[in-house]
Amino acid sequence: xxxxxxxxxxxxxxxxxxxxxxxxxxxxxxxxxxxxxxxxxxxxxxxxxxxxxxxxxxxxxxxxxxxxxxxxxxxxxxxxxxxxxxxxx
Length: 89
Description:
Layout: H1 2-15, H2 24-37, E1 49-53, E2 56-70, E3 73-86
Antiparallel strand pairs: 1-2, 2-3
Helix pairs in contact: 1-2
């Protein structure tokens, strides 16, 4: 559920027309505001890898969530995804 919220927050920043003019720190601030509003605790904006190669903006996530299932058994979920946007559009 939280991964869906994280994906939505990152995609909404990428789809914002002002993102092409933003620096990586401004993008982090924008994502951090969305994480705060949606109460995302699994990841922070500082954990994201933001890069630009030519006109391609990439925001990558790589984190895991460990939740207790019962007694000494836990479930570990690994989330890796790269969100890409051509900022010329």
